[in-house]
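Lab manual, section 2.4: Encoding a predicted structure.

Procedure: take the sequence of the chain (195 residues), apply the prediction step described in section 2.3, and record the output as structure tokens. A sample record is shown.
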Amino acid sequence: MRSVEAIKVLWEWDLHGRAVFAVADLRKMFPERSPKTFAEGLRRLVRQGILERAARGIYVNPLSRLSKRYRVEEIAICLRRGEYSYVSLESALAEYGAISQIPMSRITIVTTGRSAEIRTPYGVIEFTHTSRAVRDILESTIVMEGRPLRIARVEAALRDLRRVGRNLGMVNEEYYRDILEEQAAARSDSQNVAT
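Recorded output:
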């Protein structure tokens, strides 16, 4: 694949809001290439800075004009494509202010896929496997506009933390109680409106 052609194709995908690709995606974008030519072309594009290797089999368009704020989550989705994954454990609890320490350059994700720790140029992705039912996952997580992954509700993140045997000493119990009371009041209000 020629550099000019690759830049044009990646630019078009960028306009459609996509900057992270699995090797299989790139193969579809450049289908006429033989496997050997494709692999050589991919290595050349990385050397030229047109593509960046983020993890095994995952590439990022470093020239993308899209926000990099959630790039690590986009990479996580590519790594666990076809699985249910959501931000939880320390990462979710830190966002809620429910723990005293904020994980730096690391995101903790619960997934129906396999557990793993993957280092990327955008931070470490820690996948923790769950066998929870999909319905339970959907009910205990929320969608945030503009964010690629769902995020666990605070009580689900704490439940996940307990389930995997992580350090509970950093959890701000007072904050956690306040959140649970607020959520219980909100549920009660919504049930009263429904009836």
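Check your result against the sample. The longest helix spans residues 173-194.
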